[in-house]
Give the backbone structure.
Amino acid sequence: MANKNQARLKRAKRSRYKIALHNAMRLSVFRTSRHFYAQVYDETGGKVLASASTLDPSIRESIKYSGNCEAAQAVGALIAKNAQSLGVKRVAFDRSGYRYHGRVRAFADAARENGLAF
């Protein structure tokens, strides 16, 4: 029987395959219990165009704890701003196998509110 992380990676692989078929820029997330990370990849998936995380100094000063929904919303707003400064307006959302609730949902909603289209 596979453990939780192997199952998550299997789901992530399946969704990344489907995103690659559409040849779209990919907004990928990764979460740990303490931090939240997001990156925008180009169409080939080989180059990171923009990134944001709870480790960024601008976010670190504004939040009390980096492992909650409030922190994920701040990362969503920052990644949207960084991506738009590069001219990226439309992305495919790669949840990396995580369920769409909690911090992942808060991140996605904040990114949409700040101008990214999924």
